[in-house]
């Protein structure tokens, strides 16, 4: 059976996610702001959750109902036959987005939806589901748009950017989804060396290693939302897991290296590499920025330096950006450099001409991925 799905993505990553969905086998793909509509069967739903690198969640829309105000929303939701999706012994949670004139508080909106569902259960079964906001059996996404509410089942549960391998995190780490997207935008392939001289807890090198070794990022997660759905196909899921485990490779074609001046964050990066089984492939080195050297004649050097919004003082970071520019120019001839920053003035301190500027959103902060051709 073919279903309509909706994948949520970070603003500015819609086209990257679209290409990924195409590669995974999605059909009738239609990009929207912060999301992609697509079609596929249950197998595709499971595969996208297991393999997607740039997507947050995959939703299964089940109804669009009238929601002019709280009373209309309650009555509309109660008309849906919820026993097709939820049994009283199971737990639920509601996540709301959007608003209108009368439904402008997400917690209040969620309460109306929850009350409608459990009141229906009481009338049918004499008992009701409990709410579990941490790990519900059924996570319902409700999006208010004008006087309508789109109700969807969240197949992912916890956001897919939480791969499950990164227990150790440094200050203001990149989301794994953004790191994976940056690698795509940098046109990095496993045949090219990759170096991050400000690697922190290692997100960029680790996402590169997962891609290079064909490791499905979902293999490290404990569960997905769809695993507690009433129509969950355990045999199909086990087949996909087995296929993913058998498809991984064991040797990198080119080096993937991260360095940082701080021994503690290098240890964090190494711990994360161990957690996803690539500690014998990726190299993490404690090294001052002033001491880094190119590990190959060509490759991609990519980094996410602090830009004074969450980490660092913008008045004191100018010298760091100048140093990066000098190192790019002097020690990485033949390479291509990419630098993510949310501070236009600091980027000027790099002192190199950009060949491309790509707008990105980093956790709500407008940023730019700057490309430098190093001749």
UniProtKB/TrEMBL annotation:
It is an enzyme of class 2 (transferase). GO terms for molecular function: 16S rRNA (guanine(966)-N(2))-methyltransferase activity; RNA binding; rRNA (guanine-N7-)-methyltransferase activity. Residues 44-155 form the THUMP domain. SMART domains: THUMP. It comes from the Bacteria. CDD domains: THUMP_AdoMetMT. The keyword Methyltransferase applies. This is rRNA (Guanine-N(2)-)-methyltransferase. It comes from Gloeothece verrucosa (strain PCC 7822) (Cyanothece sp. (strain PCC 7822)).
């Amino acid at each position: 059976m073919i279903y309509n799905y909706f994948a949520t993505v970070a603003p500015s990553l819609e086209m990257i996610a679209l290409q990924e969905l195409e590669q995974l086998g999605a059909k009738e793909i239609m990009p929207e702001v912060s999301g992609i509509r697509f079609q596929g069967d249950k197998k595709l739903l499971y595969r996208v959750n297991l393999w997607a690198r740039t997507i947050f969640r995959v939703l299964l829309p089940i109804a669009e109902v009238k929601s002019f105000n709280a009373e209309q929303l309650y009555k509309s939701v109660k008309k849906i036959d919820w026993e097709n999706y939820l049994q009283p012994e199971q737990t639920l949670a509601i996540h709301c987005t959007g608003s209108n004139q009368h439904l402008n508080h997400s917690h209040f909106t969620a309460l109306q939806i929850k009350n409608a569902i459990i009141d229906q259960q009481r009338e049918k079964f004499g008992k009701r589901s409990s709410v579990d906001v941490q790990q519900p059996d059924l996570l319902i996404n409700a999006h208010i748009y004008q006087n309508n509410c789109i109700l969807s089942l969240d197949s992912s549960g916890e956001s897919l950017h939480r791969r499950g391998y990164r227990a150790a995190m440094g200050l203001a780490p990149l989301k794994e989804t953004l790191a994976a997207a940056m690698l795509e935008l940098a046109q990095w392939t496993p045949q090219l060396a990759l170096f991050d001289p400000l690697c922190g807890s290692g997100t960029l090198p680790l996402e590169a290693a997962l891609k290079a070794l064909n490791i499905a990022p979902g293999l490290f997660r404990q569960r997905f939302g769809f695993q507690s759905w009433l129509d969950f196909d355990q045999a199909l899921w086990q087949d996909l897991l087995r296929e993913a485990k058998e498809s991984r490779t064991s040797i990198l074609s080119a080096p993937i290296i991260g360095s940082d001046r701080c021994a503690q964050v290098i240890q964090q990066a190494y711990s994360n590499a161990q957690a996803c089984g690539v500690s014998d492939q990726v190299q993490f080195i404690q090294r001052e920025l002033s001491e880094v050297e190119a590990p190959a004649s060509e490759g991609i050097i990519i980094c996410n330096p602090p830009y004074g919004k969450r980490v660092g003082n913008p008045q004191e970071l100018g010298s760091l950006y100048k140093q990066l520019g000098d190192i790019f120019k002097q020690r990485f001839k033949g390479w291509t450099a990419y630098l993510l920053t949310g501070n236009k003035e600091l980027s000027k301190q790099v002192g190199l001409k950009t060949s491309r500027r790509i707008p990105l959103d980093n956790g709500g902060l407008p940023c730019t991925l700057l490309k430098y051709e190093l001749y």
